[in-house]
C-alpha cells in the first residue's frame, strides 16, 4: 500500500508515453510498407492511364464519325421527303467535311477477316466518302426533276386532274340546271342520283390521293393493291350511277343536254380510270422512284461499308481497353491484399492494447473507485494500490479536488434556495397585481352601473314632469353606460375563455384583403369624424390564409380602433399586408401604423400584458387594458406572433403574423 504523499513524490511510468511510442513504431512500419506498394502500383496505373487516354481519344473520334454518318443518313431522308430544302445538302456536305477531318486523326490499323493485309482506317474512309460525293450530287439532280422522280404523279397531276375537273364541272352543271329552275325533272330520283354521283367522284379522288400518299410513304405493294381494288369498286359504282342517270335523262323531255353530258362524263370517267391503271403500274414497279434505287444500290452500301470499318476499329480498341481494365483490376486486387494485411496487423495490435489496458489502466481505476466509495462513507482504512501510473495518480488528485468542489456546490445550492424564496415573493407580488386589477375592474364596473342607476333614479323621481328631450338624454346616458358595462363584461369573458383554452377556432381559407376592407368599413364613420385617412397597401392582389375570420376581424378591429382613437385629426393610418417566410413556413403579415400619441419606450415589453394600460392613455380615451391582451391570445391561438415596433416619439406600429396554412 502507498500513501497520498508517496503518490505525489514517486516517479511513476506514463501509460500515454508507452502507447504513443508503440503506436509510432507500428505506424512507421505500416506506412513504409503501404508507401512502397502504392508507389509501385501508381507507376503501373500511370502507364495504363496513358494508354486508356489514347484509346479513349480514338474511340471518341470513331463516335464523332458515327454521329456525322448519322447526320448524313438523317439528312438524306429529309432531302427525299423535301428536296426543295437546300439546308439538307448543306448538312450532308458539312458532315462529309467533318468525317474527312476526323479520318486524318484515326491512325490505328484495321485487320479485315478476309485479308492478310492491314488497311488504314483513314484511307478507307477517305476513299469511300470521295466516291459518295458525286453520287449525292446525282441524287440531287434526280430529285430536282419531279417527272423523273415521280412519273406517276405527273399522270395524276396533269391527265387525271383535267378529267376530274371535267367530270365535277359537268355534274355541277346538271345540279345547277335543276336548282335554278331551268329544268324541272319528272323523275324525283334524278336529282338525288346527281348528288350521289358527285359524292362518289369526291371519294374516288380522295382515294387516289391516299394511294399516292401511301406510295410516297413507302407502304407495301399489298396495301397499295388493296387500295387500288377499293378504287376499282368506287369506279364500278360510279359507272352504275352514271348509266342510271343516262337512262333517267332519256325519259326526260325538258333537258336538251342531259343525255349528252352524262355520255361525256362516262367517257371521261373511263379515261380517268385507264390513266389510274397506268399510275398503278408505275407506282407498284421497282423503278417507281429513281432516287430510291440510287440510294439503296450505291449510296447506302458505301455508307454501310464505312460503318463496318468503324465497327471493326471500335471492337479492336475496346478489346485493348478491356485488357488495360483487367490490369487495373489486378492492381486493385493487390491493393486489397495490402489493406487486408494492414487491417490484420491493426487488429492484432488492438488485442495487445486491450490486454495492456486491462493490466495498466482498468484494474488500477477499479481500485481507485473502491477506495473512493469507502471514503464516501468515512471508511478511510482502505488505501490506493501501489501499482499506479501518472494518469491514475491524476484521478486520485482529482478526487481530492472533487471534495472541495462538492462543498462549493453545496453553497451554490443554498444560494439557489434563496433565489427560490425570492421567486416566491415575486409570485406574491404578481398575485397582488392581480388583486389590484380586480379592484380597478370593480371601479370600472361600478362606474357604468352608477350611471345606469343614477339616471334611472332621476327618470323615476321626475316621472311625469320630464320633457321628451330630457327623457331622451337620460335614456342615452343609460344606454351608453350599459354599452360600456357590456363591453367590459364581454372583454372579461373573452379573456377568461382564451386563458382557459375553452375557445376553439373556426378555420377557413379567406382573403386577408377582404377581411381588412370589411374592418375598415366598420370603423369608417369614426375615421370620418376625425378626418383620418386609412390606406391599405398589399404586396399582391390576393393574400389568402387559413384563419378564423371572426377572431382575426376582432384583432384588426381592436388595433384599428386604437389607432383611430389615439390619432389626432387630419392624420394618416396605413395598413401593410404581405407574405413572409418565418422558420421555413409561409406566413401572412399585417402591419398597422398610425400617427398618434405613441407609446413610451419603457412600456413596449408590457403592452400586451393582461390588465396593463399605457400611461399615455390612462387619462383620456383609454380602456381597461384588456384589448391588446385579447389580441395577443387570439394570435397565439393561431400559432402566430404579435408585436409592437419602435417608431420614435410619434405614432404606434403593431404587427401580427399568422401561418398561411393551418
Provide a descriptive summary of the structure in words:
- The protein has 662 residues and is of the alpha+beta class.
- It has four domains: 54-146 and 293-327, de novo design (two linked rop proteins) (Up-down Bundle); 152-286, de novo design (two linked rop proteins), CATH 1.20.1440; 413-502, Helix Hairpins (Orthogonal Bundle), CATH 1.10.287; 504-659, Heat Shock Protein 90, CATH 3.30.565.
- Helices cover 71% and strands 8% of the residues.
- The chain has 16 helices and nine strands.
- The chain has helices at 4-9, 15-81, 87-103, 121-144, 146-149, 151-179, 189-216, 221-250, 258-283, 290-376, 390-461, 468-500, 512-522, 524-529, 549-566, 627-637; strands at 109-111, 118-120, 508-511, 533-538, 544-547, 572-582, 585-593, 641-645, 653-659.
- It has a five-stranded mixed β-sheet with strand order 4-6-7-9-8. The protein has a two-stranded antiparallel sheet with strand order 1-2.
- Helix 4 crosses helix 10.
- It starts with a helix and ends with a strand.
- Residues 109-118 have low confidence and may be disordered.
The residue fraction in helices comes out at: over 70%
The class by helix and strand makeup works out as alpha+beta
Q: What's the CATH class of the largest domain, please?
A: Alpha Beta
CATH architecture of the largest domain: 2-Layer Sandwich
Order of helices and strands: HHHEEHHHHHHHHHEHHEEHEEHEE
Strands, total number: 9
How does the overall form come out from the CA principal axes?
flat
What is the CA–CA distance across the termini?
72 Å
Mean pLDDT: 77
How does the major sheet shape up? Answer: 5 strands, mixed
Q: For this structure, what is the CATH homologous superfamily of the largest domain?
A: Histidine kinase-like ATPase, C-terminal domain
CATH topology of the largest domain: Heat Shock Protein 90
**Rg measurement, Å:** 53 Å
Q: Total domains, how many?
A: 4
Helix count equals 16
> What fraction of the residues are assigned to beta strands by DSSP?
5-15%
Amino acid at each position: 500500500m502507498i500513501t497520498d504523499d508517496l503518490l505525489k513524490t514517486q516517479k511513476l511510468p506514463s501509460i500515454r508515453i508507452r502507447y504513443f511510442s508503440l503506436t509510432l513504431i507500428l505506424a512507421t512500419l505500416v506506412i513504409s510498407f503501404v508507401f512502397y506498394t502504392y508507389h509501385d502500383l501508381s507507376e503501373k496505373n500511370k502507364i495504363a492511364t496513358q494508354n486508356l487516354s489514347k484509346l479513349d481519344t480514338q474511340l471518341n473520334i470513331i463516335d464523332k464519325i458515327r454521329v456525322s454518318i448519322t447526320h448524313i443518313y438523317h439528312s438524306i431522308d429529309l432531302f427525299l421527303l423535301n428536296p426543295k430544302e437546300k439546308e439538307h445538302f448543306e448538312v450532308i456536305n458539312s458532315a462529309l467535311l467533318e468525317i474527312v477531318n476526323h479520318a486524318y486523326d484515326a491512325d490505328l490499323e484495321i485487320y479485315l477477316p478476309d485479308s492478310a493485309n492491314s488497311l488504314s482506317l483513314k484511307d478507307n474512309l477517305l476513299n469511300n466518302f470521295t466516291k459518295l460525293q458525286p453520287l449525292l450530287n446525282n441524287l440531287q439532280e434526280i430529285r430536282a426533276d419531279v417527272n423523273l422522280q415521280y412519273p406517276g404523279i405527273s399522270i395524276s397531276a396533269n391527265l387525271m386532274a383535267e378529267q376530274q375537273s371535267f367530270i365535277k364541272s359537268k355534274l355541277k352543271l346538271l345540279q345547277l340546271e335543276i336548282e335554278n329552275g331551268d329544268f324541272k325533272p319528272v323523275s324525283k330520283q334524278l336529282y338525288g342520283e346527281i348528288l350521289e354521283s358527285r359524292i362518289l367522284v369526291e371519294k374516288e379522288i380522295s382515294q387516289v390521293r391516299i394511294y399516292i400518299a401511301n406510295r410516297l410513304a413507302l407502304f407495301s405493294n399489298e396495301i397499295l393493291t388493296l387500295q387500288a381494288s377499293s378504287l376499282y369498286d368506287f369506279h364500278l359504282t360510279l359507272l352504275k350511277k352514271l348509266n342510271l342517270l343516262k337512262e333517267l335523262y332519256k325519259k326526260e323531255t325538258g333537258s336538251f343536254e342531259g343525255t349528252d353530258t352524262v355520255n361525256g362524263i362516262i367517257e371521261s370517267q373511263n379515261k380517268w380510270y385507264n390513266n389510274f391503271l397506268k399510275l398503278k403500274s408505275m407506282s407498284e414497279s421497282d423503278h417507281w422512284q429513281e432516287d430510291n434505287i440510287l440510294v439503296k444500290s450505291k449510296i447506302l452500301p458505301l455508307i454501310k461499308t464505312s460503318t463496318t470499318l468503324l465497327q471493326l476499329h471500335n471492337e479492336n480498341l475496346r478489346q485493348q481497353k478491356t485488357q488495360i481494365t483487367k490490369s487495373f483490376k489486378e492492381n486493385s486486387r493487390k491493393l486489397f491484399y495490402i489493406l487486408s494485411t494492414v487491417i490484420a496487423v491493426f487488429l492484432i495490435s488492438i488485442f495487445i492494447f486491450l490486454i495492456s489496458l486491462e493490466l495498466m489502466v482498468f484494474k488500477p481505476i477499479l481500485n481507485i473507485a473502491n477506495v473512493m466509495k469507502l471514503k464516501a462513507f468515512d471508511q478511510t482504512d482502505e488505501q490506493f494500490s501501489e501499482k499506479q501510473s501518472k494518469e491514475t495518480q491524476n484521478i486520485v488528485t482529482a478526487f481530492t479536488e472533487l471534495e472541495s468542489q462538492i462543498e462549493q456546490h453545496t453553497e451554490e445550492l443554498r444560494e439557489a434556495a434563496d433565489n427560490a424564496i425570492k421567486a416566491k415573493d415575486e409570485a406574491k407580488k404578481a398575485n397582488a397585481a392581480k388583486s389590484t386589477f380586480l379592484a380597478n375592474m370593480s371601479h370600472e364596473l361600478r362606474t357604468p352601473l352608477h350611471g345606469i342607476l343614477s339616471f334611472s333614479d332621476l327618470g323615476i323621481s321626475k316621472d311625469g314632469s320630464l320633457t321628451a328631450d330630457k327623457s331622451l338624454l337620460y335614456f342615452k346616458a343609460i344606454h351608453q353606460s350599459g354599452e360600456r358595462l357590456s363591453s367590459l363584461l364581454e372583454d372579461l369573458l373573452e379573456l377568461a375563455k382564451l386563458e382557459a383554452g375553452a375557445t376553439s377556432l373556426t378555420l377557413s381559407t379567406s382573403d386577408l384583403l377582404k377581411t381588412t376592407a370589411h374592418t375598415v368599413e366598420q370603423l369608417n364613420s369614426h375615421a370620418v369624424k376625425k378626418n383620418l385617412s386609412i390606406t391599405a397597401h398589399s404586396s399582391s392582389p390576393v393574400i389568402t390564409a387559413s384563419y378564423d375570420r371572426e377572431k382575426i376581424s376582432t384583432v384588426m378591429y381592436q388595433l384599428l380602433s386604437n389607432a383611430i382613437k389615439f390619432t389626432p385629426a387630419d392624420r394618416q393610418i396605413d395598413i401593410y399586408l404581405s407574405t413572409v417566410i418565418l422558420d421555413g413556413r409561409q406566413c401572412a403579415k399585417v402591419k398597422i401604423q398610425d400617427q398618434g400619441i405613441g407609446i413610451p419606450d419603457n412600456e413596449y415589453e408590457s403592452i400586451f400584458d393582461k390588465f396593463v394600460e399605457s400611461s399615455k392613455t390612462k387619462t383620456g380615451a383609454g380602456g381597461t387594458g384588456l384589448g391588446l391582451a385579447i389580441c395577443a391570445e387570439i394570435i397565439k391561438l393561431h400559432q402566430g406572433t404579435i408585436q409592437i415596433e419602435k417608431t420614435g416619439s410619434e405614432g404606434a406600429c403593431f404587427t401580427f403574423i399568422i401561418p398561411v396554412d393551418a
